[in-house]
């Protein structure tokens, strides 16, 4: 749903702090490019001053019938053009390079913070909202940084050159202009705060809209099957309208800048004619000098205007930068403790000791759950849907942390070891059997760094992946987004092969064979049986055939273990498990 964005009149705090932090962290490292840009900007500014100078001289030559008007003047102007034009190009290019470098670094940082950061944070928002940060927020930051880099030096220097020319020509006039102009600028600066505020709302909504669009495309199958096109269109329509409405606010605040600047320019020109004309008529300055001043103002005006609109752009970008920093600065909750040790290759014992856990601020999903797996054992977790079985795996992988109790591997609390070394000891097939949009071969070999072709082939064989050779493209066939080019059962087998190619001592299978035919399933059971004694295998499954041969079964109901024992023991007990088996057999 497009989120209703609460208007927040206060706006994000510390505009100047944000600006200077951004400049220091991202632009300063590129100072060489910006210095180069500024050098070329200085050249263009000097040439601009030259235009005023030659105009003044030429006008007087014309008046005096001096023939330098058609010899020297055109040549000087051509020379100025020939210098200024390439300088303009190189100035822009140097700045572009500096800004692009900075943006690449910023994107990498944002991405690294997200992908390295808490799993819970990635889960808490629709993926589209993060995607939008890389698309929409980055564009705003980039545009403003480009404009700042290219305009700031060029505009201030050009204005400076014009002012110096005017000062040497008519200081009184110049001083007058310098007093009047800044006053006229106050409203333009005021507009900035409005831009920043509306921009933040517009960007938040852009994130929500991206999420809506993402979902519509990802869920295309369901959309078509249920004829939900109209429903999706109306959701998107509302999003587009809201986007337009919020963006209009930004545009309106930005649009107000131009008329203000127009007024400022017009008043300046009118005043100039009155004042300079009068000075010329009283012979304090020459007609040529009046024209020179007009040219100087003509050259400076667009630059002043550029600075004015730059302010609006800058405020828009600052709102985006604040959103980016909100992600970058968010502390990580699940991370390595300062005294975390890297665990070596584990023996593979797993222990859940009275574990309590709930998602976010929600109530407990695991309510004092205990279970153990000895090294080399195959253990099954069974229980009704929603009982908390997948959650057990998430805690063992330390995607989340227990609220109470302890999760241990080789008798070490998972919180006391480094995340990397913990996860290196675990191979995992998730319930959704997620594949990456790359080749089949790569999808399998990702399970182990430096996996050889032989190891990949062996893992695929163990996971009953003989269908690969029949795929168009074979081992190089693309899996498609999330693996959608494959059938559900094929996807599961590739995901299983990826886990098997890893030699991790603990293997977690979450409904890893639920979509398979019984022949493939029994082949996989054999492959897993061959691993018995070498790996600790924890299986979550509903199917009896998948779990019955496990050394030990844990029956989980409503977040707690209610029964444990071998298949036969539990059958003999005649309680929960026995009833489940009875249901499946009848
Ligand atoms: N990311 C999440 N945020 C909030 N609640 C969640 C989240 N994931 C799971 N839950 C809740 O936690 C409970 C346990 O979920 P879990 O996925 O562990 O069940 P499960 O036993 O694996 O079920 P199934 O057999 O259907 O896969 C459920 O009630 C579910 O609603
Ligand atoms: Mg599950």
* Count of individual domains: 2
User: What does the average pLDDT come to?
Assistant: 89
Largest sheet: 6 strands, mixed
- Count of DSSP-assigned helices: 18
Annotated CATH architecture of the largest domain: Up-down Bundle
Q: Do you know the CATH topology of the largest domain?
A: ABC transporter transmembrane region fold
Q: For the terminal residues, how far apart are their CA atoms? A: 44 Å
- Return the string of H and E elements: HHHHHHHHHEEEHEEHEHHHEHEHEEHH
Radius of gyration: 35 Å
- Strand percentage lies at 5-15%
Instruction: Tell me roughly what share of residues is in helical segments.
Output: 55-70%
What is the class of the largest domain in the CATH system? Mainly Alpha
Strands, count: 10
Low-confidence stretches: 1-12
Shape type: elongated
Report the structural category: alpha/beta
Bound molecules: adenosine-5'-triphosphate, magnesium ion
CATH superfamily of the largest domain: ABC transporter type 1, transmembrane domain
Strand order, biggest sheet?
A: 6-7-8-3-9-10
Give a short overview.
With 586 residues, this protein is an alpha/beta fold.
Outline the structure in words.
The protein has 586 residues and is an alpha/beta fold. The chain has 2 domains: 15-328, ABC transporter type 1, transmembrane domain (ABC transporter transmembrane region fold, Up-down Bundle), CATH 1.20.1560; 350-425 and 504-585, 3-Layer(aba) Sandwich (Rossmann fold). It is built from 18 helices and 10 strands. It has helices at 15-27, 31-64, 72-116, 119-124, 127-169, 171-218, 220-225, 229-281, 287-329, 389-396, 419-424, 440-445, 453-462, 488-501, 518-531, 544-547, 567-573, 576-585; strands at 350-357, 366-373, 378-382, 404-409, 412-413, 426-429, 506-510, 536-540, 552-557, 560-565. Strands 6-7-8-3-9-10 form a 6-stranded mixed sheet, sandwiched between helices. The radius of gyration is 35 Å and the shape is elongated. It starts with 14 loop residues before the first helix and ends with a helix. Mean pLDDT is 89; it is low at 1-12. Bound molecules: adenosine-5'-triphosphate (ATP) and magnesium ion. Residues 123, 359, 362, 365, 385-391, 431 line the site of adenosine-5'-triphosphate.
């Amino acid at each position: 749903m497009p989120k209703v964005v609460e208007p927040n009149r206060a706006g994000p705090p510390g505009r100047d702090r944000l600006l200077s932090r951004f400049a220091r962290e991202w632009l300063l490292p590129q100072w060489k490019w910006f210095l180069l840009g500024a050098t070329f900007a200085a050249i263009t500014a000097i040439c601009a001053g030259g235009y005023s100078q030659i105009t003044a001289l030429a006008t007087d030559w014309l008046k005096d019938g001096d023939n330098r008007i058609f010899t020297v003047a055109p040549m000087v102007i051509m020379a100025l053009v020939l210098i200024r034009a390439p300088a303009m190009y190189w100035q822009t290019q140097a700045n572009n390079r500096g800004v692009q470098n900075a943006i690449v670094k910023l994107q990498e940082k944002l991405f690294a913070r997200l992908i390295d950061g808490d799993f819970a944070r990635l889960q808490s928002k629709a993926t589209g909202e993060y995607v939008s940060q890389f698309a929409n927020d980055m564009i705003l930051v980039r545009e403003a940084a480009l404009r700042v880099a290219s305009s700031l030096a060029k505009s201030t220097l050009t204005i400076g050159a014009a002012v110096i020319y005017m000062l040497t020509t008519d200081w009184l006039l110049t001083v007058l202009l310098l007093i009047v102009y800044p006053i006229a600028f106050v409203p333009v600066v005021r507009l900035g705060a409005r831009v920043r505020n509306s921009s933040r709302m517009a960007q938040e909504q852009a994130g929500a809209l991206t999420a809506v669009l993402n979902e519509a495309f990802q869920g295309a199958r369901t959309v078509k099957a249920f004829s939900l096109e109209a429903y999706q269109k109306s959701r998107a329509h509302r999003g587009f309208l809201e986007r337009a409405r919020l963006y209009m606010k930004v545009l309106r605040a930005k649009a107000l800048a131009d008329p203000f600047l127009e007024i400022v320019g017009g008043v300046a020109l009118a005043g100039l004619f009155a004042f300079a004309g009068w000075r010329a008529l009283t012979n304090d300055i020459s007609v040529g000098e009046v024209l020179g001043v007009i040219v100087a103002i003509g050259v400076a005006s667009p630059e002043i205007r550029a600075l004015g609109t730059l302010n609006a752009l800058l405020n828009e970008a600052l709102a985006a930068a604040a959103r980016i920093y909100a992600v970058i600065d968010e502390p990580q909750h699940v991370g390595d403790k300062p005294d975390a040790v890297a665990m070596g290759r584990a023996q593979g014992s797993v222990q859940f000791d009275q574990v309590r856990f709930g998602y976010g601020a929600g109530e407990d999903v695991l309510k004092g759950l205990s279970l153990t797996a000895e090294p080399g054992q195959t253990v099954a977790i069974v229980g009704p849907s929603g009982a908390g079985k997948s959650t057990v795996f998430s805690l063992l992988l330390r995607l989340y942390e227990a609220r109470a109790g302890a999760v241990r591997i080789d008798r070490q609390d998972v919180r006391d070891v480094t995340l990397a070394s913990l996860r290196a000891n675990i191979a995992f097939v998730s319930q959704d059997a997620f594949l990456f949009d790359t080749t089949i071969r790569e999808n399998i070999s990702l399970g182990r760094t430096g996996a050889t072709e032989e190891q990949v082939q062996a893992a695929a064989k163990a996971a009953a992946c003989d269908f690969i050779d029949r795929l168009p493209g074979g081992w190089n066939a693309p899996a498609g987004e999330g693996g959608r080019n494959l059938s559900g059962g094929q996807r599961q087998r590739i995901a299983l092969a990826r886990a098997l190619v890893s030699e991790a001592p603990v293997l977690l299978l979450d409904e890893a064979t639920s979509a398979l035919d019984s022949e493939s399933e029994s082949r996989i059971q054999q492959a897993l049986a061959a691993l018995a004694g070498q790996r600790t295998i924890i299986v979550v499954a509903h199917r009896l055939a998948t779990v019955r041969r496990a050394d030990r079964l844990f029956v989980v109901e409503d977040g707690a273990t209610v029964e444990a024992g071998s298949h036969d023991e539990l059958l003999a007990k005649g309680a929960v498990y026995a009833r489940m088996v009875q249901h499946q057999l009848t």
